[in-house]
Amino acid sequence: EKTACFLRDSYLFYRKVESFMRLTGEPVLREGSSALKSVQAFTGFSSADAFLSDLNAGRVGVRELFGKLLC
User: Fold this and answer.
1) Buried b / exposed e across 14-28, counting CB within 10 Å, b at 16+?
2) What gap in Å lies between CA 56 and CA 52, rounded to an integer?
3) Predicted TM-score (pTM) of this structure
């Protein structure tokens, strides 16, 4: 159940970020860019660093989980 919740939360977070990027026409979020600051606010984070930290932690967690499940 914990794994399912993690995957659901990660998926919803990534979809929210993707929706923002599509709506704004931003293909890439670069550090220090106004787009990064906007997506950080859009997703409710207090800073770009907090957003990037959560994004990277989620990516690592999903990658590790899929590695365990698929191998």
Assistant:
1) eeebeebeeeeebee
2) 6
3) 0.85
